[in-house]
Amino acid sequence: MKAVCLPPGGGLPLYSAAGIFIQASARAAFCQAGPCDEFQLPVLSERLSLSAAETASRSSSTSMAGKIQSLTAEEREHLLPILRNAQWVEVVGRDAIYKEFIFKDFNQAFGFMSRVALQAEKMDHHPEWFNVYNKVQITLSTHDCGGLSQRDITLATFIDQASIL
Length: 165
What we know:
The chain contains 5 helices and 7 strands. By secondary structure, it is of the alpha+beta class. It is globular. Strand 2 (about 15) and strand 3 form a beta hairpin. Strands 3-2-1-4-5-7-6 form a 7-stranded mixed β-sheet. It has helices at about 25-30, 50-60, 75-85, 105-125, 150-160, and strands spanning about 5, 15, 20-25, 90, 95-100, 130, 135-140. About 35% of the residues lie in helices and about 20% in strands. It has one domain (about 5-45, about 55-160): Transcriptional coactivator/pterin dehydratase (Gyrase A, domain 2, 2-Layer Sandwich).
């Protein structure tokens, strides 16, 4: 499994290769078989949401304050492989997921960020992101529960769909 290390204090991520941390493009890390086109990266096609029974069970186990729950072990076992298949990676030392998107130019990157921002605002769930010209790096985690939640899965699914428009 690939993992991304975010250095203390932010900045560009560092990637682990054979135990040595190096600065590298996430795109290069994902394209193991040679050059790839950013628009050929797989997009989440499976529905990544809880069933009605799971949602009802989860709602009944939510505290009185209505706190957001972290993903259960079973949910992680089912959902994280699907995210990995769509090139999301788990962040080392943190319960979060990360992905880098590369677009033709700044206008496409900014349009993508605008679509994501509108959806994130509707969901009241905001990504951590970094943009330079045509690259957008996104980290998702739910601060209210201190890790990954269904909100991250839902937003990651939307983000992947928005990246191909």
